[in-house]
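Progress against Task 2.4 (sequence-to-structure conversion) is shown through the following example record, which the project officer requested during the mid-term review.
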Amino acid sequence: METSKVVSIEDRIPKLKQQRRKKANKKLILLLLLFFTLIVLVIYFQSPLSHVKTIEIEGNYVYSDEEIIPLTKLTADTNIWRVNEKAIEEKLAGLPEIKSVKVKVNMPNRVIITVDEFKRIAYIMKEKSYLPVLENGEIIKENKTERIPANAPILFGFSEGKELNGMIEELEKLPAEVVNSISEIHHTPKKTDSFHITLFMNDGFEVSATTQGFSEKMQHYPSIVSQLDPDKKGVIDFEVGSYFKAFEQKGADENEEEAESEG
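Structure tokens generated for the chain above:
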């Protein structure tokens, strides 16, 4: 019969003491880590390290950083933990040309503001100033400029409403190269078409069209012009189908009408 090994209490006491010592050391290390972590946090909160150091603004073109930052009320004395993202987003969203805003706090001391602005589709001539027209059809009266805009067509005879909204919607559908080729768009309603427009192009041609289905026809403008004599300017009519009439021919027709009336 095999006898079991018996360990005396005296032999086990050193091992128990060693295990207890290890547990005590682990607890002490954890308490020290917690203590030093709290000290670091207290120092961080009480020092300028916890203040806003950098404000980065992304996606802004209309509004400059110098215009946006004061509206946030953030300064070098603002504690990073007291930055109210929601309040800043609501404040900046109140600007007429801002579509949406996202504010994000990046530790330890950075604030990133991402702005999505409404696109300026065109400008409206008002007295001697140009008022931007946004993609939502709103006319911005505060941000007027006296310089002739080079990045969008100038609208004449339009006011806020269905005609303007229809025009903006059609311009948004056009390729940038076609929009950039338009100098002026005049709202020239007829008895039979309240949406009739007359365009003056940067290359010297004139376009007669209507806002209804305008983008579908106007996107073919570069192809049509490429087939015309660049030295022979005239009117490209997109009202019914599409055809070209030279300015000289237009004048000749008027002379013929006058001669017929005299006869």
